[in-house]
Amino acid sequence: MVRFPLDTLRTIESRIIIAYAGRPEPRMRDIRNRNPYYTFWWVKRGEARLQIDARPYNVAAGQWVLIPAMADRHHLLDESTELVSLSFHWAWPFGEPVLRMPAPAIGDGKSARSLCHQASLVARLVCPNPLDISSRHLRSGVYDLLTYSKILAAFQTFLIHLCHVVVPLGSQIVRPDEIDPRLTPILTELTRSPSIGPLPFDRWRGVAGIGREQIDRLARQHLGMSLHAWRTRLLEREIRRRLLSSAAVIKAVAADLGFVDSSHFNRWCVQHLGLRPSQLRGGAA
Question: What is this structure's pTM?
Answer without folding.
Answer: 0.66
